[in-house]
Amino acid sequence: MHQPAPQLRLSTANILTDIGWFAATFHVPLHQSLLPRRGHRRDKGTRVRIPGEESRLPFLGIRRDSILLVEPTQGDELIETSGSIGRTSSHQVGCLLPEGLLRGTLQVLVNVRVSDFLRQQPNLVVLRDCRLTGYGEPADSPKARKLRVALVNVGRISGVSEWENKTV
């Protein structure tokens, strides 16, 4: 029996890869999170702007393992991770990326250590209220990039640490 195609919504995001920032539109099932589905190795973006190019590509398949970070650009984006549903506590963390230090707030289940939580995550974790700064720059640097939400590929970062508020 033929299943009808699901209704799709357009979801825009900026994506950080080894070659820089992409801007793309994704076609996501209506009530599904922007977070990629398990088992998929590629994400398909449309109207993609790649680094250094002015015109947009109509379509681009983006290898999932090339993604360092996804920044949803719509305020109403559905962002949920299976590991952080329930009673959680906030932890300030810093992620070491080739672009610099990403500081933000990670929600972790109560009574679970940050390191254990990260080890259990299959690919992307959600950080909120983030700042991406170059190494050696203060968090309030005018060059800092503010991100309301960042989906971080834990398999691609060099390291993660809890970060004291006073150093942020």
SSE order and pairing:
Elements: E1 8-17, E2 20-29, E3 42-49, E4 57-63, E5 67-72, E6 88-97, E7 100-109, H1 114-120, E8 124-133, E9 145-153, E10 159-162
Antiparallel strand pairs: 1-2, 1-5, 2-3, 3-4, 5-9, 6-7, 6-10, 7-8, 8-9
Describe this structure in words.
- The longest helix has 7 residues, at 114-120.
- The mean pLDDT is 84.
- This protein has 1 helix and 10 strands; from the N terminus they run βββββββαβββ.
- The protein has 168 residues and is mainly beta.
CATH level-1 class of the largest domain: Mainly Beta
Please tally the helical runs, counting DSSP H or I stretches of 4 or more residues.
1
Strand order of the largest sheet: 4-3-2-1-5-9-8-7-6-10
The run of helices and strands is EEEEEEEHEEE
Largest sheet: 10 strands, antiparallel
> Which structural class fits the helix and strand makeup?
mainly beta
User: Any low-confidence stretches, pLDDT <50, length ≥5?
Assistant: none
* Tally of strands: 10
Helix content: under 10%
Question: Distance between the terminal alpha carbons, to the nearest Å?
Answer: 56 Å
Q: Do you know the CATH topology of the largest domain?
A: SH3 type barrels
Architecture of the largest domain, according to CATH? Roll
Beta content: over 45%
- Residue-averaged pLDDT: 84
